[in-house]
Amino acid sequence: MTWLITGGAGYIGAHVARAMAGAGERVVVLDNVTSGVPERLPAEIPLVRGSATDAELVARVCAEHEVTGVVHLAAQKQVGESVERPELYYRENVGGLATLLETVAGAGVRRFVFSSSAAVYGNPDTGLITESTPCAPVNPYGETKLAGEWLVRAAGHAHGMATVCLRYFNVAGAAEPALADIGVFNVIPMVFDRLTRGEAPRIFGDDYPTPDGTCVRDYVHVMDLAEAHLAAARRLARPDASGDLTLNIGTGLGVSVRELVDVIAEVSGDRRPALVEPRRPGDAPRAVGSSALAEKELGWTASRGVREMVESAWAGWCLRHPEATSK
Ligand SMILES: NC(=O)c1ccc[n+]([C@@H]2O[C@H](COP(=O)([O-])OP(=O)(O)OC[C@H]3O[C@@H](n4cnc5c(N)ncnc54)[C@H](O)[C@@H]3O)[C@@H](O)[C@H]2O)c1
């Protein structure tokens, strides 16, 4: 069987494609290279350039590569942009997904892994988020991921397709420097960016009801995340696979912004003190996920820590910003 990996030239997708191919699975990547980087993929992984929302192309790729399973990562993923351009997010992340599901179901695909997000929960007031914590997304990005889950589940039931939705928490790190995230939308690259400019890191609010007063998040290494996709694919490949699963993919461990900034200072060697600024609207004090269900259903747990994430992310940053190392 062959797995079609949409968005496989992206940050997470390239790690997933490599992990699956490295474990002996046959894969083909479909990516329109809007934010993807083809060089992230080794030559032995075929890359088809085009959109996962192009029904004709998807049908052709499924036929040519004898695709029987899909791992769908291609999406629009910037929270701020989703607020400004909700139509784009609904069109790509929900409308595009509907086209993809209809096409692959017609091509005989009966296994589907969907890239969801902890953004579906919004800002719940709870110690540890489980899959039964109510979903209340607070931006169009999170809404499209939640609607995407509903659609995947409904299409799965309609077409006899076994499905897994993976709700990622904060993804960080890289398997090697060239695979690192190139966006500056998450706290780790945002701090790197400040340091490289010779500016102090910023902490938004230190008066939250958390141990050190700063926001607490759950960081998961992208290699652990890639292994979760492999485990999900293997679970779906069982002959008796059926039904739908929705699973948190995190570590269950909270790391505060202050702790993270301290690790970045150690790794980068730049120890200038952080500036504390007012809280940003919409930031939840704490967002940490229980992955007990993923452990039970997939036999998966995260094994890599924050230091490893920051070190590998810093190596990737320095590759693209050589000036960072001379500070
Ligand atoms: N990065 C995170 O922290 C995080 C957290 C939760 C969920 N996610 C989800 O994980 C997935 C991957 O995110 P990422 O961080 O690797 O982003 P990314 O932008 O690096 O990767 C997305 C990839 O999809 C491709 N793409 C976009 N639209 C496409 C289309 N219509 N057809 C084909 N290819 C298309 C892009 O070129 C890119 O290669 C997304 O679905 C995102 O919502 C990411």
What does this structure look like?
It is built from ten helices and 14 strands. It has helices at residues 11-22, 55-65, 79-84, 86-106, 140-159, 187-196, 222-237, 257-268, 292-298, 306-320; strands at 2-6, 26-31, 47-49, 67-72, 111-117, 162-168, 170-172, 202-204, 216-217, 219-221, 244-249, 255-256, 275-277, 286-287. The strands form four sheets. The protein has a seven-stranded parallel sheet, sandwiched between helices. It has a three-stranded mixed sheet with strand order 12-9-14. A two-stranded parallel sheet has the order 7-10. The longest helix has 21 residues, at 86-106. The model has no long low-confidence stretch (mean pLDDT 96). The structure holds nicotinamide-adenine-dinucleotide. Nicotinamide-adenine-dinucleotide binds next to α1, β2, α4, β5 and β7.
